[in-house]
Amino acid sequence: MSQKFDRIVVVGGGSAGWMTAVALATGLQGRASIELVESEEIGIVGVGEATFPSIRVFNQHVGIDEADFLRATNGTYKLGIRFCDWQAKGQDYFHTFGHFGNLSGSQTLWAQHRRMGLPESLEGQCIPSVMAAKGRFVRPADPGHFTYAYHFDAALYAEFVSKLAIGRGVRHTQGRIVEVLRREDGDVSGLLLADGRRIEGDLFVDCSGFRSLLLGQTLQEPYVDFSHWLPVDGAWACPSERVGEEITPYTRATALEGGWAWRIPLQTRTGHGHVFASRFVDEDAARRQLMAQLDGPAIGEPRLIRFKTGHRQRLWVNNVVAIGLSSGFLEPLESTSIFLIQDGIARLMKALELQRPLNESDVALFNEGSARRFARIRDFIILHYCLTRRRDSELWRYVAGMELPQTLAFKIELWRRYGVLHEYDEECFDQTSWLAVHTGMGHWPEREDPVIAEIAQERALRALAGRRQGIAAMVEGMPLHHQTLQQVLR
Ligand SMILES: Cc1cc2nc3c(=O)[nH]c(=O)nc-3n(C[C@H](O)[C@H](O)[C@H](O)COP(=O)(O)OP(=O)(O)OC[C@H]3O[C@@H](n4cnc5c(N)ncnc54)[C@H](O)[C@@H]3O)c2cc1C
């Protein structure tokens, strides 16, 4: 691998490609030339409308103004995800971007709540969960209160970011790559386009989507297959017209016979999709089930996308680094793909900013960290499935009985036996997220920690009721989500 990265070529103009290009242009400030190649003929995957709060960090880092961004991308605010019918039909819970008070010691909020056997949901103790239930949204006055993310049109976001990147000196080349040229040492030396042009570079960032043109097809890097645990392998996507004025400030994920359906509200339409496992439900039935979920009249025909959950074993091989779908895909249940794009960019920038030549250990660290990140998110997503009490179809019987990755089995055991929310390195989701899913799925520790009884029952009850009432009163005074949006967009 060359030690000099004066010419960086980004292959692909979807969200991964343009986010990488703008971040490199912003971070490297002219220390390398950056060229992005994409093919209009091939196009982009064009789905991916829900995000995780880290997107705000990225936007701020590259200097994106929130109101401009929301205007340009048909964007709305997101406070978390409402999961319907996952534990059992008719039961739902909210995965919040907020928190549930203390997580340790005698004042551990969830444990006191549990000890009192309170009939109301723990969600009443969390500001954004109550906001979501009431359809309200304001940006937090104090960032410590809660955080938030967005829903947006992924194609519009790529277009928006492309303008920024080009403004910062990224060269934009349209053309279909028909051959990837290699040097004797295995490095990629250039790309041959269909019209005969050649593009040369020192470092190639593969953002070519599911094709994985450089890392997968050319360098033949093996795929680590997660489909044993995450058996979904297809999705039907179809937006619908928006019905009514109100816009829910959250994503909805509804468990179905052989998968689950997403509902993502944008300003002018609602994104719908059905992620399904073809082993358990056939394609046509999955399509029909999606169409039955739409809020309003469909916009266009449903589109089918195929995938396999997992990731490339190494994301950086020779002088090729894969970011986005070309590096892997974990299914969209927790909206983590754009987070993984950011994660890849951050690791790449860190390597490029080293004040010494890169060596094999730097690349090995990049690869090991990235693989662990995929595994951590994989475990969190599996948690949503494996705790189910549903046994009404093949998919649910399968996921309830499947053998779990050891890392996840250990975490579940710690929670069940001791009420401990263990964290590994490279976690993407913190203890609050794990708590939200465990408790939302009705999965509580078997025993009470004796330290919890240090607080008198009456005092604990008063504290819980006070917090719940305080949150309810605060949320009551907030504007509805669409009102806040109108104000920001104005
Ligand atoms: C069903 C589904 C739902 C999803 N939902 C979410 C979600 O809610 N939230 C989220 O964060 N993510 C989601 N994602 C993931 C999200 O869509 C992607 O992470 C994101 O769009 C980035 O895609 P990409 O840029 O890697 O690939 P693409 O958008 O596919 O871009 C690939 C690019 O490579 C170019 N290319 C490929 N081959 C060639 C060639 N030979 N020559 C020239 N150019 C070439 C194409 O032209 C294109 O520009 C979802 C994905 C799927 C499949």
Automatic annotation (TrEMBL):
Protein name: Tryptophan 7-halogenase
Pfam (any one): Trp_halogenase
